[in-house]
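Hi support team,

I've been running sequence recovery on a batch of backbones for a student project. Most finish fine, but this one hangs at about 90% for roughly twenty minutes before it completes. I'm not sure whether the input is malformed or the queue is just slow. I've pasted the structure tokens below so you can try to reproduce it. Let me know if you need the job ID as well.

Thanks,
M.K.
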């Protein structure tokens, strides 16, 4: 990453804390009885990733001058939940690659991916309990349930050409934003009794998460395969109706609307079908408007930090909310 990347700058600033989190994570992913668990977990970790969610958890605590080490436990918890969801998602989506590498379900099998994901979830709950905070446990356990509920909601809306934006936002709030929100909220909860600061960090995390997912939706139709590590148009070929599609269905005339519905309901989609879809999306500025919506949530994220005490960490968090808009992977 470039030196101007605020995520890498924050990683550098919090390097020692991230190292402790990674050491704890590595220790707890071991299993002397089932060596396949660390094999699969190591594979998905080696595929890269910025560890943004645990980073935000640590940063939220440090921004409020936290002096103990429970934020390390929380950050590892967040990373365990996130890694488990990645394993499960790849099975559900029948994915072949993640970040340019073969997925665990392809290299091993679906059963192993599901069961290792379950093991990682159990590790997350062990760490939650070790924080000795019922309030933190409540937030994180509710988040885990919300994520699963939203994944099922998304699955039940595959090929649903009548899905509305309200349902879409309900899905991404749970599927993506909930873990960002919980990371920031719990980091603040262990650091302060100031309910406004806790509420502000919760709002920041949610806004960052929604912005992140909207850019994901945008990149799925505009990104480059080599950079993203996955094929352009994956959402289309998996019949997932995301923000640019739902928005276009809402704005388009009957002919274009019916064309989109026909394309998404096809069982044997082709690259020509994707090209036809691109033509309609261009006609209604769908991708431009998707980025515009993401910018709105980026602004909300920055506003959420307004009352947080000034610090270098706060400055970098504000920059990250802008940086996410311009990411390419």
């Amino acid at each position: 990453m470039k030196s101007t990347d605020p995520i890498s700058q924050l990683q550098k600033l919090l390097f020692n804390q991230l190292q402790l989190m990674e050491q704890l994570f590595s220790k707890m992913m071991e299993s002397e009885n089932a060596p396949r668990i660390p094999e699969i977990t190591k594979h998905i970790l080696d595929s890269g990733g910025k560890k943004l969610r645990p980073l935000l958890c640590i940063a939220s605590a440090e921004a409020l001058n936290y002096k103990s080490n429970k934020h390390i436990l929380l950050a590892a918890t967040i990373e365990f939940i996130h890694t488990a969801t990645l394993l499960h998602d790849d099975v559900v989506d029948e994915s072949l690659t993640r970040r340019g590498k073969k997925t665990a379900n392809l290299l091993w099998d679906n059963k192993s991916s599901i069961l290792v994901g379950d093991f990682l979830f159990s590790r997350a709950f062990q760490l939650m309990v070790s924080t000795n905070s019922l309030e933190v446990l409540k937030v994180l356990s509710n988040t885990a349930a919300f994520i699963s509920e939203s994944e099922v909601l998304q699955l039940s809306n595959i090929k649903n050409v009548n899905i509305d934006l309200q349902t879409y936002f309900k899905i991404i709030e749970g599927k993506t934003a909930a873990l960002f929100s919980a990371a920031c909220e719990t980091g603040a909860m262990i650091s302060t009794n100031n309910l406004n600061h806790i509420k502000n960090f919760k709002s920041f995390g949610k806004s960052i998460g929604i912005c992140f997912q909207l850019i994901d939706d945008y990149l799925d139709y505009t990104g480059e395969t080599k950079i993203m590590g996955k094929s352009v148009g994956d959402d289309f070929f998996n019949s997932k109706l995301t923000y640019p599609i739902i928005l276009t269905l809402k704005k388009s005339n009957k002919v274009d609307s019916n064309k989109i519905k026909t394309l998404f309901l096809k069982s044997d989609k082709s690259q020509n079908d994707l090209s036809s879809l691109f033509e309609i999306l261009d006609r209604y500025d769908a991708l431009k408007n998707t980025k515009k919506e993401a910018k709105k949530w980026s602004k909300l994220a920055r506003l959420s930090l307004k009352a947080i005490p000034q610090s270098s960490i706060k400055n970098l968090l504000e920059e990250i909310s802008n940086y996410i808009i311009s990411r390419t992977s």
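--
Follow-up from support: It reproduced on our side and the slowdown came from queue contention, not your input. Strands lie at 97-98, 101-102. No action needed from you.
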